Amino acid sequence: MSNKQPPISRPTSAKVIMVEGSDPYKNTWKILSAAGKNFINDVRSPLLIKPNLTHDEKKTGVTTDPHVVKAIVDFLQKYVSLDEILIAESSSKSTIQAYKNLGYDEIFQDYEIELIDLNQDDHKEFEIINPLTNQPQNIPLSKTVLECSYIISCGLLKTHDTGIATFTLKNMMGAIVGSKGKMSMHGGKYSHDMSNEELKRCVNGFHHNIANLVRMVTPNFSVIDGIIGLEGNGPIDGDPRRMNVGLGGLDPVAVDAIASYLIGFDPMEIGYIYLCEKMGFGIADISKISVNLEGWTKHRKSFKPHERYSYMTFVP
Questions:
Q1: First to last CA, the chain
Q2: Mean pLDDT score of the chain
Q3: Are 157 and 257 in contact (CB under 8 A)?
Q4: Which of 110, 249, 289, 312 has its CA 20 to 30 A from that of 76?
């Protein structure tokens, strides 16, 4: 289970692929094509694709378009021989309804690929520190995710109500079985049920929990559908913002760092990105990341942060 082991040495540079376009399938295919042999020679079976289906209804900019996942599956089936490809998620709502309402059931009905509800999965215990009580607590982590050999995390460009922004690293919270464990990562309740002081007190612990989760279930490849992002009160109740880009790469920290910069934030202020770099999982320093798209910074926009952004300061 290679995803459970921290890297031995820290990388010194990274590459991120950025593409332009308004078609999620074409953008994703272009990302994987640009990654080429570096991606094709890296993948292993069983391979797990982890979309972001935090909500079970269609809301623009909130959930991963199924055509992103379809492009990944089609690309893999064309260029790689894999024994097993899984699509898996644990929605904060109903995962089964999410697969149905968002079009996953229809798109993948003719594929021999299982759509897994991780909320119903067997699990292993994973210890965190509850940010509100500051006490150790065990949460259930999906055995399916832990036992897979390769993870492709599919994120979006979204602001967040605790972590400032969420992309492909924090997307791995979907590896937690059930809503109670997810709430424990925040402090036993979600931020919208916290006072401003409670939120402020929980921020550092939340970021450390995300980084330690990534240590257990590290994405091997990241894909971000950046056609329409979400600003304001994300990750669900924000406002759509058109960007018409896609991002991807073998370094999930670098991909998330470029994503955060792209929507107007300093990657180092997003605690889990900062911590994942310190742990050696990738590069967060923009000056050490190369982006293939010439003039890519022209796509940078300042997303409106969450209304309680001032209480989300991470202190290293």
A1: 30
A2: 96
A3: no
A4: 289
H or E stretch at 215: helix 196-216
Q: What share of residues in the chain are helix, strand, coil (percent, to 5)?
A: 40, 25, 40
Tokens of 73: 């599956």
**Domain extent listing, the chain:** 2-295
Closest CA to 220 of 190, 249, 259: 249
Integer CA distances (angstroms), 152 to 155, 191, 207, 217, in order: 10, 28, 21, 11
Its sign, for the CA torsion 156, 157, 159, 163, is positive
Give the model confidence (pLDDT) of 167-182 as tens digits.
999 999 999 999 999 9
Instruction: Estimate to the nearest angstrom the gap between the alpha carbon of 50 and the chain centroid.
Output: 8
Q: What tokens appear for 69 in the block? A: 């996942």
Nearest to 68 by CA among 222, 295, 210, 236: 222
Q: In angstroms, rounded to a whole number, what is the distance separating the alpha carbons of residues 272 and 219?
A: 14
CA 89 to chain centre: 11
Q: Which CATH architecture has domain 2-295?
A: 3-Layer(aba) Sandwich (3.40)
Alpha-carbon span 220 to 120, nearest angstrom: 24
**Residue 8 in this model has a pLDDT that exceeds 60:** no
> Model confidence over 193-229: pLDDT tens digits?
999 999 999 999 999 999 999 999 999 999 999 999 9
DSSP summary character for residue 305: P
